[in-house]
Amino acid sequence: MEALKLFQEYMGTGLIMIWFLISLLYLWLTEKRKHIRVMFLYVPLVLLFVFFNPLVAKLVSGLADGEIYYRILWLLPVTPVIAYAAVDFCGKLVGYRKYVGITAALILFMLSGSLIYRNPYFQKAENVYHVPTSVVDICDAIEVPGREVMAVFPGELLQYVRQYSNVVCMPYGRNIVVSKWIVQNDLYDVMEQETIDAAELAELAREEQCAYIILPESKNLVGRLQDQEYEEFGRMHGYVIYKDATVDLYYFLRE
Fold it and tell me: What is the DSSP letter of 151?
């Protein structure tokens, strides 16, 4: 069953969802206030019923990509339900048992998840924009006042560029690094090669009307981009920014 598979993937380590289900059972047996039961009991149960309903799953999959069906689970108030149930339970304890219960709950919650920074797509925030500072500085350097500019970035920066700037455009985005979406782009394939042919890179970048090429300083090039009329615009944070010396022609054609 596809819905069950998506639910299992959504559960992560599974322990948080176990506490969620235990909390629902606890509230079912102990909570008497109607408004609390509606918010923290009936709503989650209805959402779970909808999610596991094969008719709903078939309808949603027919109208949209089946991969997004799991987003129904985002509506589950997992954290509020667990938090309320834990506080309610500990509040009924007396004496030292209350502090033991609170301590145990905190320890269980910490052990129930995984450190988010172990995910390669997450890292500690370097600035108020919550994107790598390299992206902020590179985008600020290549932005053209009053208009959009096309630039090609290496794969590790793709998902952050759009989060920071709405005027720095790219010939491909984060979707290209998600294998299950099967998106193909010749320019991306060349950018991700260990050794890049400068002439091929320049040709493909111009086909995509890229005014800038951003490459890691450690990237090996066969030939020089300068020989392909790409001049070195700057270096920062371990990246080299190349600017197409013929870019004014593109701007003229696109205006």
Answer: E
